[in-house]
């Protein structure tokens, strides 16, 4: 991989031959601790994950080796508080670190997001939400169990959410049900596109707690860390998709799976509260695609300069049409980075309407922008650049998948921005 000189503002780990960061710490006012965590992610991505990405993609194989490295470097516990052995990163730091991982291996970054959400949602996000003192104390006791497994044993958590219907879009209650029984719940249901299937140690299942005599309600959503080896769990179907092939997002079936009370990653009612009051929780799928946008741009600059390893040193940069394409890509990339950085920086409880609309716009921009930049990269680099021996065609395929991610698909973002910009809460045309 070509060496880009490190900027002066970077920490020690960056001083060798790393790519420049996507977000320079001085320009984007990141502190030394943030820059250090992000640099660790970038170094691991560039030095280790980039070289493995093609094989995971070709074989649609889960990046198990990368997860061992994420554990070894502490990144598996990036959002776990320091006093519990984690790196104590906040939302913004995690998001930028995830973009750096996505730059080198999209499937690792996307699955790492599912894992990190189990700690981010139960951690800094839950700390912002309302709970009485006893509930909070119990929540803190329970989450410590999960955090210890991750920090000490390298346990991997996933986040099966989608069911194929309107639940993952936020429209109705999850069809996967948790029936209260002595000491826990019995879980029954089906999750589609469950990334890390067969590879996670715990499936962080979103499901609806059944209440005798009541209709299923989104208010009764539970977030349970179901042990993957439990009786009644099966992984079915094959996995041979267009892109993000290393995510191994197969179908999970739950048949009378007993889940103990301590498996709750959030207390009763808190997931619903989070979905209402902390909407940026759903923006965490976007960092991967910011990284892919940067990767497509980096590839193009190297390729047109004749500096891409594995290709003849032929320069193509002197053609005005190629220069214009690079300019268009750079403008798009800076637009994506600017709105996305602002949105991840203002993630918090009870955001203003303007901040929520900006978060949808940031998600849309990252997901669609990554693919637009990758499309331009293919067109302008030319035929030899899209061979499977080079990373660009994988970046292109991976980048196409971002807009499909519920609950904030590109279509649903457009839908919400349009409606919420034109109507205040409760307003109608009647
Ligand atoms: C690579 C990859 C990895 C994934 N990993 C995970 C994972 O780990 N966990 C997980 O839970 N999911 C995951 N997903 C699933 C993803 O989040 C979506 O749920 C999935 O792509 C939706 O597929 P679908 O065909 O059901 O979509 P759609 O049919 O588009 O959507 C499903 C339903 O959502 C509603 N809906 C969709 N669009 C609209 C609209 N415009 N207006 C109103 N309602 C709408 C409808 O009810 C629709 O039937 C992954 C997807 C991919 C591609």
3D structure, described in words:
With 430 residues, the chain is α/β, with parallel strands linked by helices. Helix content is 46%, strand content 11%. The chain has eleven helices and seven strands. The protein has helices spanning 32-59, 64-72, 91-104, 106-127, 133-153, 270-277, 287-304, 320-345, 353-381, 392-400, 410-422, and strands at 157-158, 177-181, 184-194, 202-209, 221-227, 233-236, 250-260. Strands 1, 2, 3, 4, 5, 6 and 7 form a seven-stranded mixed sheet that branches. The model is unreliable at 1-16 (pLDDT under 50).
Continuous helix count: 11
Bound ligands, each once: flavin-adenine dinucleotide
Q: Could you tell me the radius of gyration in angstroms? A: 22 Å
The beta-strand count equals: 7
Q: What structural class should be given to the helix and strand makeup?
A: alpha/beta
Strand content: 5-15%
Give the overall silhouette.
globular
Can you write the helix and strand succession as a string?
A: HHHHHEEEEEEEHHHHHH
Cα distance spanning the termini: 61 Å
Main sheet: strands, sense, barrel: 7 strands, mixed
Helix % is: 40-55%
Features:
seven-stranded mixed sheet; alpha/beta; 430 residues; 46% helix; globular; single chain; binds flavin-adenine dinucleotide
